[in-house]
Write a structure and sequence with these properties.
Largest sheet: 2 strands, antiparallel
Order of helices and strands: HHEEHHHH
Structural class: mainly alpha
């Protein structure tokens, strides 16, 4: 496969990953038995630099940070797939940096989460890695 197609596939997968993450990260299944913990996360408030916050606020804020960066990565991958081969080949810090970033996301997903983000991360990392390799060869 050629780099543009691989970058565009990665971009679509990143968009789906962002949507799934955003819809799912705040959901709590009652079967998990964590209702009292969730009530505590939402209700215990404290002052941070003059603002009243709960741990739930930090959880939601950081979760939305992840969504924003996944959407940015999707835009970046789409843009990389739209570049001419010579330009793309001259950007190894960007192309391989994106691969390294998603290799780290893959490890973190495996270490701390569950199969859905692991699968998305693995496939995205493979697409980005193959695209970077193809871009370097052209």
């Amino acid at each position: 496969m050629k780099a543009p197609l691989l970058y565009h596939i990665a971009s679509v997968l990143l968009l789906l990953f962002a949507i799934g993450h955003t819809l799912g990260f705040r959901r709590v299944d009652p079967r998990w038995g964590v209702d009292s913990v969730m009530v505590s996360l939402r209700s215990i408030r404290f002052e941070v630099q003059g603002n009243s916050r709960a741990y739930w606020d930090f959880y939601v804020g950081f979760g939305l940070f992840v969504t924003v960066f996944l959407l940015f990565a999707a835009l970046l991958a789409w843009q990389l797939g739209s570049l001419d081969p010579q330009t793309l080949g001259g950007m190894p810090m960007v192309t391989w940096g994106l691969v390294a970033c998603f290799a780290a996301v893959t490890f973190l997903s495996w270490r701390y989460f569950f199969m859905a983000p692991v699968i998305f991360s693995v496939v995205i990392t493979l697409c980005l890695g193959l695209a970077a390799w193809a871009a370097a060869r052209s």
